[in-house]
Amino acid sequence: ETLARHRTALLELARARCLDIGAVSEEIVSGETIAARPQMQRLLGEVESGRWEGVLVMEVERLARGNGIDQGLVSQAFSLSGTRIVTPYKTYDPANELDEDYFEFGLFMSRREYQTIRRRLVAGRIASVKEGKYLGGVDPFGYRRVKLQGEKGWTLAPIPEQAEVVRRIYHWYLESSGLLQVQKRLLAAGYKTGTGLDWSQASILALLRSPVYCGDVTWGRRKNEKQLKNGQLIKRRRIARDYIRVRGRHAPIVPETLWHAVQEKLDRTPGVPIPRDKTMRNPYQGILYCACGHKMQLTTSTRARKGEPPRPYYGLFCPSLPCHMVSSRLHVLDTAMERAMDAWLSGYTAEPPQPEGEAQLQELRAEQAAAESDIERIDGQLRRAFELVEQQIYTAEQFIERRDALTSRRARRENYLHTLAERLRAIQDGSGRCAPPPPQPAADACKAPSAAQRHALLQSVLLRAEYEKTPPPGQRKQSAEIILTLFPRIPMAEPHADGCI
Q1: Model-level pTM?
Q2: What is the pLDDT of residues 385-421, one digit of tens each?
Q3: Beta bridge partners of 449
Q4: CA 128, CA 217: separation in Å to the nearest integer?
Q5: How do residues 42-64 score in pLDDT, each as one tens digit?
Q6: Cα within 13 Å of Cα(287), Cβ side
Q7: C-alpha angle with apex 383: 378 to 387, nearest 5 degrees?
Q8: Is residue 284 within 8 Å of residue 465, measured between CB atoms?
Q9: Are 266 and 176 in contact (CB under 8 A)?
Q10: What letter would DSSP give residue 296?
Q11: Contact 299, 327 (CB under 8 A)
C-alpha cells in the first residue's frame, strides 16, 4: 500500500511538472545498507553513468539510511553526475552548494531516524519476549503459532502428530550413537520435516538445540556478526553465549530433564575438525549433482602403504541417505569427466548444412525483406506511443511497458535480420557452412594443475553436470560405469550424456 501511494503521488508530480518518466524502481527491503538493496544499486549505477536528468523520490531520506559510507556513495553519485533530486516539496540541484549541504544533512538525519526507530522496535520485542511471547516468524516443527486473546503478540500450540515425532527424536538421540543413526530411523519411518523434506543432520541438530521444546523463548540467541572481507560486508549468524531466555507461555513438548540430558550429550560429542589448510580440493564444487538432485560432496580418507608415509584419498559421494548411487574416487571421476568433455567437444563443431541453391536464396531474401518491414512497422508504433503519452492518453507506466515491449521485439527482429544476412553471405561465398572453433576453456578444464583452476574453468563452461553410477546385479560397485550428463553454458539442442568407465 505504501508503494502504491508513493507511486501515485510521484506520477502526479511528474504529470504536473511535465516530466518524462523513463523508468520506475520499487523496493521493499530494510534501509540499513545499500548492499541489501539491488534496485538501489541499479539506480546508483544509472545515475553515475549520467542516464537520468533527475530522480523523483518522496523524501531524500528514502534514498539511504545506511552508515556514512553508504551516504557518501549516494551523495557522490548525484553530485558528480549532476542528477537532480525531485521531491513534492523541493528540487535539489547538486550544482547548488546550499542544496548539496541540505541534501547531505537530510541523509545524516535519515540515519539518525532509522537508528531511533530500530532501537524502539528492539526494545518492544525484548519486552514481549520477557512476557513469554513467541516472536519467531516461522512455526517451529511441532508447534503452530496462535494469536493471544485480548492482547498483542503470539504464542505456540503443539501439533500432536509432530510433537510425537519431536519426542522420538530426543529419545532416539539419547539411545543412539549420534545424529546419523537418528537420521536413518527418521528416514526409515517415513517422517518428513514441516516443509515436506527429508530430515538432515543439520535440521535434527537445530531441533535438539532449540530451547523452545522445553517451554522457553529466547531473544538474541542467533546474532548477526558483521565482518569486512575484501572490501565487502559479510553477515554471519552465530549462536551467542549471552542471550535472553525466559519461560514461555506455551506448553513444552519434552521435559526439562530430557532436554538438558540431550544438551550434555551434544556438548560431549566432538565436532568435525576444521582443516587448517583451506586450499580447494573439490574441483566439482557446486557443479556436480547426483541424479537424485543433491550436490555431490567431497570425502577424505587417509591410508598408509607399507614403507610410505600416509596420504589422503579423496572421493565424491551423494549425501542423501535414500539415494543408492555409488561413490567414486576423485581421480576416477577426473578421468570420466575428461572423456565426457572430449566426447562433447568432438561433436561441438558439427553444424547442420545451410540451404543452397537459387530457390533458397530467394526464400532468404524474402524473409529479409519481411524482417525489414517489421522493423519499420515497430518504429512507427514507437512514434505513436510517444504521441499518446504526450497527449496524456497513456500513463507513464503504460508508456514504459509499451516502449519496453516494442524495443524488445525490435531487437529480436534485428538479431534475426543479422542471422539472415550471415546465411546469405555464406551461400553467396560458396562456403555453405561455418563451423565455430571449440571453446578453449572446455579443452583445458580437465588439464589444469590445481583443483581451484579446474573448478574455475569447469564453471565457465558448464552450468552443471549430473552423476550416475549404479552397478548391475552381481557386479562390483567400484567397477560400475560412470554416466555424466553435461549441461554446457553454450546453447545446445539437448544435454550431452557420455558413459565412461
Answers
A1: 0.55
A2: 766 666 666 666 676 777 777 777 777 777 777 777 7
A3: none
A4: 10
A5: 888 888 888 888 898 887 767 76
A6: 25
A7: 140
A8: yes
A9: no
A10: P
A11: yes
